[in-house]
Amino acid sequence: ISRQVLWCPSPHCYLGPFNPGLPVEVPVWLAINLKQRQKCRLIPPEWMDVEKLEEIRDQERKEDTFTPMPSPYYMELTKLLLNYASDNIPKADEIRTLVKETWDTRLAKLRLSADSFVRQQEAHAKLDNLTLMEINTTGTFLTQALDHMYKLRTNLQPSESAHSQDF
Amino acid sequence: AFHICCNIGRISGLSGRRIPRFHLQRAFFQAWLNEKFAPELLESKPEIIECVVEQLDHMEANLKRAKRGDLKVSIHRMEIERIRYVLSSYLRCRLVKIEKFFPHVLEKEKSRAEGEPSILSPEEFAFAKEYMANTEIYLKNVALKHMPPNLQKVSLLKSVPRPNLDSFVFLRVLERQENILVEPETDEQREYTIDLEEGSQHLIRYKTVAPLVASGAVQLI
């Protein structure tokens, strides 16, 4: 559960930790909800800045492997914050473009790796710098494809009882 | 997420185990994700579920006493809905697997050794047995009793597919593991071992890591 700093300007906040005018950290779902009710202002994470993101995007394009991302939820946070709080984020459009470019580069690499994984019939892969969002984009498809291939392969040879169904 | 609303420092389930609030949330979400991504039915977690339900009841009770129109009330309500969603998803995921693999689940439970943890809660066990009985009656009435006498038996254990433990899963390592065996995919390949570093993420066959999932050393993602 990702946390987001938000700033509560109104005097309506009775909750213990909420004092008007003071920044407080809350889970993202709460921050978005309060923002939608116009009870606060959201403060973007420090990596959500044009120079920083340009660096990240260039680094990603340079390397063949996946570079570590500033947040394991960079994509989700970008989408949510730009959708609901773009007025709180300076240069929102540039940021959107930069994050999208980084995402596209990473997904292209992922598709290549998945392809070679399947072709070479690998049994194991290490995916350290991948974020959950990226994994879930191709994950289900990949695992189901691998399962199908496995079934086809093991049915090529008549094997010992284990996998066949007898009636 | 629990911390905003919960006033209790420690929660004890009916089984008497005390689980610190923060660990409860983490353990609960872990159990949910593992259940979602594992191809087989995992151990049932009665102490976690009891605590979560108790937690929900407590929060509902708090809400009833709170002033109306409070910001706090709506936040608590959202929190309750979130927890309910996860709980519901978790229980449904288990029920789907029970229905899908019912003869194997029951067989596993029957042949369980004394002291080994159960994969079914008492309610789930009753459900599975009922499901099996209903399926047998249904097959008998719809087809089997019309068959020639020597073909009127069907072994559900043999005809219902078993969970595919060879499916691939994504995981994150919580506790370092050494010398995990990776079996070859093709005849030309040889098996090899890998070390699982804490915090690393992997794609691998479920069968190899099943005991690590059960022990909590890895988390399926």
From TrEMBL, chain A:
Domain named DNA replication complex GINS protein PSF2 N-terminal: residues: 15-43
Keywords for this entry? DNA replication, Nucleus
Pfam families of this UniProt entry?
Answer: PSF2_N, Sld5
- Classify the main location: nucleus
For this protein, the record's SUPFAM superfamilies field holds: GINS helical bundle-like (SSF158573), PriA/YqbF domain (SSF160059)
What Gene Ontology biological process does one annotation of this record name?
double-strand break repair via break-induced replication
**GO CC aspect terms:** GINS complex
- Plastid is among the record's keywords: no
Compartment annotation: Nucleus
Where in the numbering of this chain does the GINS subunit domain appear? Answer: 47-151
Q: Which InterPro entries match?
A: GINS_A, GINS_bundle-like_dom_sf, GINS_Psf2, PSF2_N
Cross-referenced CDD domains, in alphabetical order?
GINS_A_psf2, GINS_B_Psf2
Assembly and binders:
Component of the GINS complex.
Family to which this protein belongs: Belongs to the GINS2/PSF2 family.
This chain's protein is named: DNA replication complex GINS protein PSF2
The species this protein was found in: Bubo bubo
From TrEMBL, chain B:
Supply the InterPro entries for this chain: GINS_A, GINS_bundle-like_dom_sf, GINS_Sld5, SLD5_C, Sld5_GINS_A
Q: What is this protein called?
A: DNA replication complex GINS protein SLD5
Nucleus found in the keyword field: yes
* GO cellular component terms attached to this protein's record: GINS complex
The superkingdom listed in its UniProt entry is Eukaryota
The subcellular localization recorded is: Chromosome; Nucleus
Q: Which residues form the DNA replication complex GINS protein SLD5 C-terminal domain?
A: 163-221
Q: Which organism is it from?
A: Bubo bubo (Eurasian eagle-owl)
Q: Which Pfam families does the annotation name?
A: Sld5 (PF05916), SLD5_C (PF16922)
Q: Does the keyword Transmembrane belong to this entry?
A: no
Q: Which Gene Ontology terms describe the biological processes this protein takes part in? A: DNA-templated DNA replication; double-strand break repair via break-induced replication
- Provide the function of this protein: Required for initiation of chromosomal DNA replication. Core component of CDC45-MCM-GINS (CMG) helicase, the molecular machine that unwinds template DNA during replication, and around which the replisome is built.
Show where the GINS subunit domain sits. Answer: 71-142
State the similarity comment.
Answer: Belongs to the GINS4/SLD5 family.
Which SUPFAM superfamilies would you find in this protein's record? Answer: GINS helical bundle-like, PriA/YqbF domain
Q: Which UniProt keywords apply?
A: Chromosome, DNA replication, Nucleus
